[in-house]
Amino acid sequence: MSTHEYDAVVVGGGVSGIIACLKLNSRGFKTALISRGDPACCLSTGCIDVFSRTDSPLDGIRGLPPEHPYSLVGRKGVADALSYFLTVMDEAGLPYEGSPRKNRRILTPIGNQKTTCLVPKTMADADVPGSEHLQVISFKGLKDFYPSYITSRFRNSAFSVYDAGVATTLGIAALFDRAAFVDSFIDWLKRLEIPHDRVAIPAVLGMNDPAGVLEKVSRAIGKKVFEIPTLPPSIPGLRLFRALKRVLQNRGAHLYWGKGVASVESQGKRIEAVTLATTGRSARVQGRAFILATGSFVSGGLFASRDCVRETVFGLPVFVPGERKDWFNTDFFSDGHAIERSGIRVDRTFRPEDCRFENLFVCGSILAGCEIMRNQCGHGLAVATGTAAAGRCAEELS
Amino acid sequence: MIKTDVVIIGGGATGCGIARDLALRGVRHYLVEKGDFANGATGACHGLLHSGARYAVTDPEAAKECISENAILRMIARKCVETTGGLFVRLPGDSKRYRDTFLKNCEDAGISTEVLSASRALDLVPGLNPAIEEAVVVPDCSIDPFRLCMLNAFTSRHKGGGILTHHKVIDIIKERGRCAGVKVLDRFTSQIKEIRAKIIINATGAWGDTLARMSGSEAPMTLSKGSLIVSNHRLTNMVINRLRPPSDGDIIVPNEAVCLAGTTSIVVDDPDAAEVDPREVDLVATQAEQMIPAFGSTRLIRAYTGVRPLLKAEASDSRSISRGFRIIDHKNGMFSILGGKLSTYRLMAEKTVDAVMAEFGIKTRCKTAETPLDGQDELSGYPLSKRLKNMNDIVCECELVSRDQVENAINSLGIQYIGDIQHRTRLGMGPCQGGFCTYRALGIMQETGRLSPDESIQILKEFLQRRFRGIRPALWGDQLREEQLVESIYLGILNMGHAQ
Fold first, then answer.
1. Chain A CB within 8 Å of residue B439 CB
2. Which of the four pLDDT bands, split at 50, 70 and 90, describes residue B16?
3. I need a surface site. Which of A115, A361, A390, B96 has the fewest CB within 10 A?
């Protein structure tokens, strides 16, 4: 078994884990990131929801209970983390827009609007006033996109269908990475002679440089153009993940991808190392500090059995609201189910409560009390707590 | 206004069986059903074609009926029945004396049995608990209740009978104290239709008393809910029963790619309000786990409950054919068929129609026992070989349902309801329980002009709510992960939550 030594080891390759890893790396610590695979972020809209229940996320989080992770980070911390995120995305070549002082809206595939905060450049013009005329473009055979849902909500709108020869978002996005395809798509668009003010396209405008493709299309037809995020697998979600991972690789952090943690070594109050589950020679990853960012149920950081919930890497104590019969309301559409509050409770230093380890920090959706669905705060919470946990971890290391 | 001879209310196995029986005897009839076929207990049972062994000790009459109907249905409904065979397994601690009585009573009822050693039983069903003492082979089968209803209705339709699903009876028309017909509400068009008939047959199962009361009579019953769970895997190819007196959670039935385990028995008042309690899920899962240990670790995809329309114990009626079911002549032009079970639906239909024919004063022989169900090749189910032919445009990835199949259901069958598409194609029956494909199927219905975009969204909301009712009692493990993903799609990406 080979041993690799680091200052900090992050377990979990989603938004919070990668942000935490970047932060530690930028402060000069030798860091590694372990991930079982591509994160749940790939299934998301790619937008950064910070807190969608009020016009201003920064004002809104003031009203959250003191145990909410945002309250632990503090408003300034949240604002700083989000501006850091914007810088990172510029560096990654996937620029985002927006400010935590004001929410904005994007269009959904069923034609209603969704409140979010920071959006990729390709969705900057997605807040369409009801009075405006809208042209929706769809692609032949795309099974998760039915443009009539959208056109029925706008008085003067129409849709046209382009036959790209493939029928999946991933397949079409790959075509948009080729200049020749973009040109022929533009020729087709021009021939439509669209009379409308704006053009909406499902989010398939390439993996590599969507903002560039969008600008080219927009300039060629002289209209505002924007993307609509679609159901999983989501291209904007994949772009976000790949961009973050790319920055991490460029900065020289060490990635153990596709590997889970098989066992944990600890001594007294400290975690010493984790051993990776690999098919070949197993590796022992040693660290002076560890960050847990494995996500909630969907990502596998938490796992519920019939009568309890466990944390899957370190076996940390998990806060669970009530018994199983209380976990979910009877109404699917209700404003947040109790199970959403389950997770790891942490103190102000993002160390888990009721836990003997002093060199372990926790961030992201595995944190107790975040209520992501109710607050619509997923990626914002990941960015803010990833940054905060990395900050506390850095203090521990120095 | 429609004029006919007999109106059957209820599109479960019994109602559809009565329609077919009438059709084969050349009697004009209409069947009305408030939902789709198999809307009540028929669609919410095990899908077990009893050998009768389950009743051999407690109810020998019912056992005899079962084994005789079992043989008939294997012959006439080949495409609905999977001849899995069944095992009664005896676990350590289960009474050996009960086993002896069981074997003797099976023999008396004409049910063939074969006692197997534990190791031979494990050869047949490797997933069995290796600690079993022994097992008894019986001719249990798995049956598809929905297809059974469809096929019975198929014969009726082809012989001129009228079948109106999604038509709810809102009134019984009475003339000179007798039932003269029904008023039904077409749930799709909201139109009210009048159907005039000489006889009304009340085959509404758990809703029997409600209907009887509409005619000014009553049909006392005891309603008992039975809850079942569905595993994501087919853990056994044979029906597995516990060799002990009938009790909660003693049956596991393989069905297509899944297994159903049940049941419980809890008396309820209102069949429309019956829901699964998470404790019932725990109870059934724990019991099933004792017979097939993998039930404990396998992902459950949902739970459901059906309401059994049981006969009131104290009432004894001269027309009572067995302890299993009873036909009531309300002496006002209405007949009610009460009690019974899926396995004996054909016999129940036969006896009901016999009673109606006696009322009409006509003598015709029942032909349903020797005539195979029509349409079995057209509606031959969901074989994988058919599904793999068109893999280009899959709408439901779990059950491999293509866009063509969905469009065909919409266009040629004239389907208006998403549930009807699901029943006929298996769309949405897999592990995600329609989390992805229902949105797509509704998109297609909307594109074909069947629904407006607003209607389509409204139906999607109702579907998600209904789906959640089935999933909620069994939410843990991987199904909980899936559920949170589905939530993030509808409440996150599509922003369909209440706040919206």
1. yes
2. very high
3. B96
